[in-house]
Design goal:
470 residues; mainly beta; Jelly Rolls; Immunoglobulin-like; 4 domains; 6-stranded antiparallel beta sheet; 39% strand; globular
Length: 470
């Protein structure tokens, strides 16, 4: 809608040349006012790189005085705005106080750019999740908004703009999608613009708009052509610079596309910033470096120092030490007889907060007759967790040094469990060495998705295991 002053000018009778000049001047003035920005200085940018929309679970601008999100509590559907701490992080203490042991969904993700383009969802069933059963959703230790749904159904979670954003000169997203899932980086109610080839390629050669797929791209700071962008199964900084900002770049939501033709089956967003024009190399690198520093600096609850498992008589004694602990709740001791399926044996209370070496132990009184696999799961008061390495104990003698956990291989990866550090070699059946891996003791994953179907050999020390890739 035109501003009142603009309408008054157009309704008066001026000489054509004067009217045109005045209209142009006031159009420029109104445009500059409507695009007045909060400088995203906390994200490494200056006023020279204004954003069209800026959404994050951290504070992006010191000039921004609003909240990060509005959440809905599942117990009574009450809503509350959640802001930031003095350091600019999401105020998780206020969030947990409000939510308690319930769930919290996001009804509004506020725009920090100053353009009042917040993302919202009024239907509670379609709101993405920030807190599940009292535990904050996190990626790499940082809060994240989780979207889930089913392909081509009305079962989806999405946040919408009030009106489509039709011009995107540069897009920067910190996100993750589930392995084997479906999702688009941005969604639109009726256009294919940001179409993916889920779950292998983020941008589709067949369906994505020419502007998106022929533009420029970066993944975690490394230049990658849009059509070569893989599926972001871990927390990833994805940047896209469309070839033509105002052509084939429109979007109006995250979470669904073309009204449920495709839905995000599982994925998270931590930050999304859209710009009306391409960033300079200096600006782009400053933003990416800032995001990498912030989102890579996960504050894990425990720094592991050691973990051992030894057979003592008919029992297994587990001992471990931590170098530091932050808000730790307890350790869960897990046991397996195949290294894949795990059962909880018990828990040991943790120190809470500590900067000195802490020692713990647990006795498993009834290990299995064959091989026994042990690991620890440390959980903190805010729901973060970390795993220890895996230890192997044989109740009847020395453990097998090298065990293949997944055979035949149907998912493109082989899981191997090592009782000690060793080198693994991969051969074809003709004896040609295809790859070599150096691993420490524990459970490891070998990617064999590039191999053709058939038989292969894995050799470690004096042990050879035959695997079948299907």
């Amino acid at each position: 809608m035109s501003p009142p002053l603009y309408r008054r000018i157009t309704m008066r009778s001026f000489r054509p040349a004067i009217a045109i000049a005045l209209l142009a001047a006031f159009s420029l003035l109104y445009s500059s006012v409507s695009l007045a920005q909060n400088t995203l200085n906390n994200a490494g940018l200056s006023a020279a790189s204004p954003a069209s929309g800026a959404y994050s679970l951290r504070k992006l601008s010191t000039a921004y005085a609003g909240s990060a999100v509005q959440v809905v509590r599942s117990s009574d559907n009450a809503t509350q705005d959640i802001g930031f701490t003095v350091s600019g992080d999401l105020d998780t203490a206020s969030l947990k106080t409000f939510v308690g042991a319930n769930n919290a969904t996001v009804s509004i993700w506020y725009d920090q750019s100053g353009n009042n383009r917040s993302l919202s969802q009024a239907t509670i069933a379609r709101q993405p999740v920030l807190v599940s059963s009292g535990v904050i959703i996190r990626d790499n230790g940082h809060p994240a908004i989780r979207f889930t749904g089913q392909i081509a159904t009305s079962n989806y979670q999405a946040l919408f703009l009030a009106a489509a954003m039709t011009t995107v000169g540069h897009l920067s997203v910190v996100h993750r999608f589930a392995t084997g899932g479906d999702a688009f980086i941005l969604g639109h109610s009726g256009a294919y613009n940001w179409h993916s080839d889920a779950p292998s390629s983020l941008i589709s050669n067949m369906y994505a708009s020419a502007s998106v797929k022929t533009g420029s791209g970066w993944v975690n700071g490394t230049a990658v052509a849009p059509l070569s962008m893989g599926w972001p199964v871990s927390l990833t900084i994805t940047e896209l610079q469309p070839a033509t900002p105002a052509a084939g770049t429109a979007w109006d939501n995250i979470g669904t596309d073309r009204f449920t033709a495709h839905n995000t089956t599982e994925g998270t967003y931590s930050e999304l910033i859209a710009f009306p024009a391409a960033l300079t190399t200096t600006e782009r690198q400053a933003l990416q470096s800032n995001q990498a520093t912030y989102f890579a600096s996960a504050s894990l609850p425990v720094t592991w120092l050691s973990f051992t498992a030894k057979l003592q008589g008919k029992s297994t004694l587990l001992t471990w030490q931590t170098a530091t602990e932050q808000n730790t709740r307890h350790f869960i001791i897990q046991h397996s007889t195949d290294g894949s399926r795990w059962n909880d044996l018990g828990t040991v209370a943790a120190a809470g907060n500590s900067t000195v070496i802490r020692s713990y132990q647990y006795t498993h009184t009834s290990p299995a007759a064959g091989y026994n696999y042990y690991r620890l799961v440390q959980t903190d008061l805010d729901g973060q967790y970390s795993y220890s390495k895996v230890n192997i104990v044989s109740a009847s003698g020395k453990p097998e040094p090298f065990v293949v956990m997944t055979n035949p291989v149907t998912t493109g990866v082989v899981k191997v469990l090592l009782s000690e550090a060793m080198t693994i070699r991969l051969y074809d059946t003709n004896g040609k060495e295809l790859a070599r891996y150096q691993y420490a003791a524990g459970l490891h994953t070998i990617n064999v998705s590039g191999l053709t179907k058939g038989a292969y050999l894995l050799q470690a020390n004096n042990t050879v295991q035959r695997i079948i890739v299907q």
